[in-house]
Amino acid sequence: MTKEWKPRIVAFFCNWCTYTAADLAGVSRLKYASNVRVIRLMCSGRVDPQFILEALTRGADGVLIGGCHPFDCHYVEGNYKMLRRYQLLKRLLADMGIEDQRVRLEWISAAEGEKVKRVINEMTQQIQALGPLGFPSKVADWDREMTELEHHVTAAAAGGCACGESEMAAAKPEVAHV
Amino acid sequence: MNSNREELRIGFYVCHCGHNIAATVDCAEVARYVGTLPHVALSREYKYMCSDPGQELIQQDIREHKLNRVVVASCSPLLHEHTFRGATEAGGLNPFYFHMVNIREHNSWVHTDRKEATEKAKALAQAAIERVAHHKALEVKRVKIHADVLVVGGGIAGIHAAMTMANAGKKVYLVEREPTIGGHMAKFDKTFPTLDCAACILTPKMSEVGNHPNITLWTYSEVTKVDGYVGNYKVTVKHKPRYIVEDACVGCMECIDACVYKTPKFEDEFNEGLGKRKPVFIPFPQATPQVVIIDPETCLNLKTGKCKKTCVEACADRMAIDFTQKETFDEIEVGTMIVATGFKTFDAKRVPAYGYGIYPNVYTALEVERLVNASGPTGGEVITRDGRHPKSIGIIHCVGSRDKKTNVWCSRVCCMYSMKLALLLKEHTGAEIYNFYIDIRTPGKGYEEFYNKLLDEGVHFIRGRVGEVTDWAMTPEEEGKLTIRVEDTLAGYVRRIPVDMVVLATGLEPQQDAQDVRRLFNLSCGGEGWFLERHPKLAPVSTFTDGIFIAGGCQGPRDIPDTVAQAGAAAAECLALIDKGYVEQEPNTAFVLAEECSGCKSCIPLCPYTAITFDESSKVAVINEALCKGCGTCVASCPSGSIVQNLFEDDEVFSEIKGVLAYD
Predict the structure, then answer these.
(1) What's the CA gap between B643 and B656, in Å, rounded?
(2) Fewer CB near the terminus (10 Å): N or C of chain B?
């Protein structure tokens, strides 16, 4: 990447509140950073953690999820379901070494065009400061390790069970320090 | 019909929207770039895609170029997705082979850098191209619409809407939480600019509502629960105990005369606390229904159980008084609803500098409406709280309006009602009237003429926001008076004007419980708390919930003509739905791939609509399509990935993610 780096943020907005708020920001001609690419879903409850991981894996530097405020979900409680998954996923992401600011959940009602602008600008600035996530290359590394590990295991299994165990033991530290 | 095995031929269209998009996004470049993507058979730019020629273009291309997918990059799908699906269908394709890219609200209108905006448009367009490849042909479901309607709120908006629909032969439930219908309008003396007597034009409508065979009028009742969806709502209505059997009461008011309280003693809500009433009362002579009510807070029998119950004696064999009455509930089924819950007036105590609640002769405008009214607490005689006939009166405009400290919006009606009150007060008292205003706003038929008439009548207009109202006299003329201190911005100096009476033109605010009502009906609110319309220009009475419409002051400050017009519009929207007989539902429901479901049941408790059940014989989850509303929560949480949501399939979303990130 020789081009000047700019944060790329993928956003998942619920149809009823946050997507409408983003429309309102447009109608109100508010100006904000152009780094966010919005994907519309019917409800924040539809946001599968895999969507977030997929976005990061494909090169997003951050992911923003927007849903209705508590008690305001068009589908009663989809936003809570998202919140539960989000809490779990955040711990997993922290373990992977992904900074807290990169994945963010915000409640934005249909009237809060201003908040869309503020959140997007804030997030863009924060991620600009953090720099590129570079997750695709990390994932590629992990994939390679997994393949190598697989080779070790198959080779060990072919070589006999007693030495197979020692080979496995030898393979482990190699994975850990990469 | 069209499977993924067939060669994909995608047609892409980027709309200029006049200059709305083209000024910020290089549409030609977007069209060129998308044209280089795989499976794109043709890529065009056009000035107005939503216009007839624009739609015709899509249809023609589908036929001539054998397109089997269509993508349009233009405005928000919430605005025109329906239009382009229609064009796609007219061209001979399944309408769901279409996808829309929002490059106006989400792009050209919010960005200024042309290069960045163009790059974003390319990325979003690429995502749509990737996504549309996975689209499936879907069928629109038709749901029957229940012909009955519920109107919530019995002010002029609710009354007009209910009458319109009842006259069209529909069965209407009108629910009002106060003991009578009529709302704010019933309290007004005259209406601007024609000076029609408010009661004379309203009360005939009220009694018509009360007697209409198609209207079920429930006063002193509230909606407590709303279930279901457009066409098939189940609504629970709570009837509060009024301690009167409505059917038995004939409105003779003998019980009121017989009450153990010989004279009215308690603050009369209808007269804004200026008059008194008994514990058993009727809000005002033309109240509809003509049924008395007993206030449990002040009734001796209900409070202490120790009373001679002279009212019961007076009622005699009519037996309309029932002290044992409890709350009751009704459950009704309706297809559509109109929410017309109105507004409340600004609490003038929030601006202490104007002395409301401190100086007795400071009034709110609504109090003055009652004061000048012939059936008001003084019979229309303007006497101040300290018993004087005012010789000079100051009317302060914009109290709780156009003020960053309170409410920023213009309440729209205050200029006009202030001038109306100025005229009425002048007629009643012959006093000198001073209006203190920021701007005079008279946008309406005959309104400016009314303002000119007042100028001719010699009503004073002083431009300036009033600093304070004080009883601190600086000169002998100010002794015993209220002095209004104001910077006269036309004359260019600070003036002190002593008056006998001050009227505060309080603004309009959302109802105290607007948020609760909003949640009940699944509506949205603007930042100020007014209910949000689906589109400010083109869908002003629709909401984001299908089948629920809004009318009148609950949507924002408006005057009576606009309220009535809106109520009529909302009624027409309901009638249009009812007479069509069915609604088409977005086919975004979820279904279970039975062969992949492991039967773990984790989806079942997640569904807020209990649409998912477990089939014991095949040991898999089953989704009832009629109950599913298409949120996709179950889909996102299925561990085996065996639930699919139409229009938002995993593959579709994943390809969209891939697409937005593919463009670098």
Answers:
(1) 19
(2) N
Task: Find the residue in B nearest to A74 (Cα).
Answer: B522
> What integer pLDDT is reported at residue B5 of this predicted model?
61
A42, B648 Cβ separation under 8 angstroms = yes
DSSP state of B108: I
- Contact flag B77-A30 (C-beta cutoff 8 Å): no
- In whole angstroms, what is the distance from residue B273 CA to residue B276 CA? 7
Phi, psi values for residue B630, rounded to 5°: 80, 40
Task: Render pLDDT for B277-313 as a digit per residue (tens, 0 to 9).
Answer: 999 999 999 999 999 999 999 999 999 999 999 999 9
- CATH fold, domain A9-133, is Rossmann fold (3.40.50)
| CA B466 and chain centroid, separation | 32
Helix, strand or coil, per DSSP, at residue A26: helix
Query: Among B66, B25, B73, which residue's Cα sits nearest to residue B42?
Result: B66
Who wins on pLDDT, B161 or B316? B161
pLDDT at A176 over 90: no
pLDDT band at A160 (very low <50, low <70, confident <90, very high): low
Residue-range domains of chain B with CATH: 5-138 (3.40.50), 140-240+327-342+511-583 (3.50.50.60), 254-314 (no CATH), 346-509 (3.50.50.60), 586-646 (3.30.70.20)
Bridge partners, residue A38, by sequence: A11
**Can you give the pLDDT at residue A158?**
83
**Residues within 8 A of A (CB atoms), B 474-533 only:** 519, 522, 524-527, 532
Q: Supply the mean pLDDT for chain A.
A: 89
Q: A59–B661: do the CB atoms touch at under 8 Å?
A: yes
The verdict on a CB contact (< 8 Å) between B105 and A85 is no
CA distance B40 to chain A (A): 21
For residue B619, name the pLDDT band (cuts at 50, 70, 90): very high
- Give the chain B residue whose CA is nearest to the CA of A35: B120
Q: How many CB pairs under 8 A join A and B?
A: 147
- Going by the DSSP 8-state scheme, the letter that residue B338 receives in this structure is E
pTM for the complete prediction? 0.85
- A-chain residues within 8 Å CB-CB of B645? 42, 46
Instruction: Check if B52 contacts A (Cβ < 8 Å).
Output: no
